[in-house]
Amino acid sequence: MRTKIKGLILVIGLWIGSCVEPFEISFPQGKKILTVDATIIDTTEEQFFTITESESRNSVTYSFPIRQARVEVLVNQTEKVLLTEKNPGIYALPRSFQLKIGNSYKLLFEKSDGTKYESGEEIMTSVPDIDRVYDEFRMRGSETQTGYDPASYIYLDTTDPADEKNNYVWSWKLWEKQSICKSCVGGRYFTSPPPLGKCESEEKYKDVPYFDYACDGNCWDIFYNKTINVFSDIFSNGKPIIGRLIAKIPYHLREGALLEIKQQSVSAAAYRYLKLLVDQAQNTGSLVDTPPAAVIGNIRNVANPDEETAGFFMVSGVRTLRYWLNRENARESEAVPTGIIGHQIYYEPNSLPPDPPRPPLAPCVPGKYRTNVKPEGWID
């Protein structure tokens, strides 16, 4: 049976885009936990930290931004770089800020009530290039609640430097072409009110499972990895890393998809933290399992070290490669695509006079999981 993890509620779980994001685990009702999402990578894009306070009420977790904090990054124990609050609880590094290999970095921040926090010191390490990416199609590829679905297994090769210790984190982001931008249950889609329109329940369609509506223009759905993929070269320093499994991409469509793979280097402390998260997530919950330990990050209250805080300040080198998954090997098999929307497409039938022409098209609403902008590297 699963043992409760005392005190900690939000921990770093997924490396999505350019930073880590927290996810929830159980914690005592009414307890407030300070949560910090702060990762710096070697990019020229603007980078942000998020500082929030979370509280559980009636089994629901609420998150509140920490506003008007003074947030700084200490470089090589001498230079302080001040961040600017762009939105409540979201603090931006200067666009000119860049990581340098060998430099040390520490996060410092002070809340408006004077409470001070600091992270452990992180040292920027190098990360090798991704040498090769390739895929293999499997009929029994990804496990589901009812069995196995076909999937493409994505692998990479990289060359681990022989003269240094390296710890790796891999993540991915997938674009799939979407043709359905709205589904309505028990009713139909109407384009009013603009710009998004809405589904409206209608008595005569109450027994209809759903109607699907085609996209008004190009649209891509975006998927992200949901597991942590970490590796240390402690026992294989300097040896090539061959055939590292990066992703299991479901066979959504017969057409190709675009995959972005990130290879990141992290410190030994960050690796241990992420590895502990992996080990706890894979806990089967049997009676002989070792109970999960409290996952404590590297951020502490200067005056009260016993205060439990969530999150881990990290610095990371990153190498990115975009790979076109053509799915030719899938099409050569007898596999049937599972679809991208989770059900068979069922369009609203065309209307007959005197009704106005239907069905309408639905807009592709951009966001974290959808875009109407053609991704770089997409092949039509």
UniProtKB/TrEMBL annotation:
It comes from the Bacteria. InterPro entries: DUF4249. This is DUF4249 domain-containing protein.
